[in-house]
Amino acid sequence: MTAHSLDTKGADHVTADQVEAAMKELSTEEGGAAFTAKQQRRIVRRIDLRLAVTLGCLYCISLLDRTNLGAASVAGMQKSLNMNKDNNAYTIVSLVFFISYTIFQAPAVVFIRKLGPRNFLAAIVLAWGAVMIGFGFVPSWEVMCVLRVILGALEAGFYPGCVYLLSTWYPRFDLQKRNALFYLIGSMASGFGGILAYGLMQMDGLSGLSGWRWIFIMEGVLTCVLAVGAWFIIVDFPEDSPKSWHFLNEAEASWVVARIEKDRSDTFPDEFSVGKYLRNALDSKVWAFAWLYMLTTTNSYAIAYFLPIILRSGMNFSVAAAQCLTAPPYVAAAIVMFIESYYADKWRVRGPVVVGNALMGILGLGLLGYVQNNGVRYFGVFLATTACNANCPALITYQGNNVRGQWKRALTSATLVGGGSIGGIIGTTVFRAQDAPNYRPGILTCLLANVLIVLIVAALSFKFHRANKRVDSGGKPIEGLEGFKYTL
């Protein structure tokens, strides 16, 4: 038990004695003596609604705000801002976001622990909503670059902060369904971003502004509204939950914390130290997870940014069709993602799911890039989109199940998502304007990324299997905890 850090906290926090009592109750019966199974399910549902669903809605608007360049592009942005093959401005504007987004990942996760999730997340969402409104009034693509850098810095703390916050609330084998719910809401709703953008384009000429400008303005306003609403809903860390708008009482919060302690004994953070925080970076698996996420997001960002353009110029669909046909693949991805997550938690497997998705991506990209028939190519879009999007919650959970300790969990969340932002840089640079309409170099890069995912998961599975066998034979504990085993 590591509850020492909360011994002196006030009544708004879960105390060590309360957790000790809850731990004893959990050890006596299947569900514990304090709450019936029905009451426990009700508590978890409340957590799901206040956490996974709310964060998923914010993630939806985050994806819309960072990937609506493709929709604005086919709505006339490139022509209006003089973006062309000579200055490669569209690629530059897409790219600069990820530079600041990558740099600010690791410190941002520290701030969420210090300032509290509700204050931190609501504040940065409100700020980037204001920046998005500014996109609608830029006079040149150079000014848009500056705003994209600011947007990247603000969004840097959101996704790793959400990943970290979710991991603190759920036991390891309840986590992938919640990560999937969070990601599902975001990715499926953002899949309809093309339809939303097409609707906003119809405001063309209103107040003298082009349709593509209204895409940014209205989505920015929506972001600000959601940020204000989220401040009243988002909850803080489980040990602090009694003070989060009376979300849980002390007995309920103690039960939640006790579940985490029983599962992995890392609910309570040690005192923060820069050296101790950064020392976690010496663990090779931290970087393996970052590489896996980088390779996955190379695919997901490439599809998000360039799918409307490929549908328009590569498959010769109309502007309306190109915008609207982006939605069905994301709906399919959401369905597959949640089914996979349900069985991955039930069977307690992670690596095979990741490999299966990567193989699906290889097939889909092959159809998209190397077949002439548009119907078959569009089916390839379904497979490729499903593969990379389903792998995002799978990898978040794969990582979350195999590290312990609050600060190590925080750093690993930051490096994982930091790797994802590098994948965004790759995904936005390998699809070059001069490679239109087939974008073969970009397709080939994404294919190679999926092959590397298979190889890295195979190496991790070998490492984890050997470590688990060592524990079974009474050898050195994994992650410093007796009885802890890696999830394969």
UniProtKB/TrEMBL annotation:
<dbReference type="InterPro" id="IPR011701">
    <property type="entry name" value="MFS"/>
</dbReference>
<dbReference type="GO" id="GO:0022857">
    <property type="term" value="F:transmembrane transporter activity"/>
</dbReference>
<protein>
    <recommendedName>
        <fullName>Major facilitator superfamily (MFS) profile domain-containing protein</fullName>
    </recommendedName>
</protein>
<feature type="transmembrane region" description="Helical">
    <location>
        <begin position="119"/>
        <end position="138"/>
    </location>
</feature>
<feature type="transmembrane region" description="Helical">
    <location>
        <begin position="410"/>
        <end position="430"/>
    </location>
</feature>
<feature type="transmembrane region" description="Helical">
    <location>
        <begin position="317"/>
        <end position="339"/>
    </location>
</feature>
<feature type="transmembrane region" description="Helical">
    <location>
        <begin position="286"/>
        <end position="311"/>
    </location>
</feature>
<keyword id="KW-0472">Membrane</keyword>
<feature type="transmembrane region" description="Helical">
    <location>
        <begin position="89"/>
        <end position="112"/>
    </location>
</feature>
<keyword id="KW-1133">Transmembrane helix</keyword>
<feature type="transmembrane region" description="Helical">
    <location>
        <begin position="181"/>
        <end position="200"/>
    </location>
</feature>
<feature type="transmembrane region" description="Helical">
    <location>
        <begin position="150"/>
        <end position="169"/>
    </location>
</feature>
<dbReference type="InterPro" id="IPR036259">
    <property type="entry name" value="MFS_trans_sf"/>
</dbReference>
<dbReference type="Pfam" id="PF07690">
    <property type="entry name" value="MFS_1"/>
</dbReference>
<feature type="transmembrane region" description="Helical">
    <location>
        <begin position="378"/>
        <end position="398"/>
    </location>
</feature>
<keyword id="KW-0813">Transport</keyword>
<feature type="domain" description="Major facilitator superfamily (MFS) profile">
    <location>
        <begin position="51"/>
        <end position="469"/>
    </location>
</feature>
<keyword id="KW-0812">Transmembrane</keyword>
<feature type="transmembrane region" description="Helical">
    <location>
        <begin position="212"/>
        <end position="234"/>
    </location>
</feature>
<dbReference type="GO" id="GO:0016020">
    <property type="term" value="C:membrane"/>
</dbReference>
<dbReference type="InterPro" id="IPR020846">
    <property type="entry name" value="MFS_dom"/>
</dbReference>
<feature type="transmembrane region" description="Helical">
    <location>
        <begin position="442"/>
        <end position="462"/>
    </location>
</feature>
<feature type="transmembrane region" description="Helical">
    <location>
        <begin position="47"/>
        <end position="64"/>
    </location>
</feature>
<feature type="transmembrane region" description="Helical">
    <location>
        <begin position="351"/>
        <end position="372"/>
    </location>
</feature>
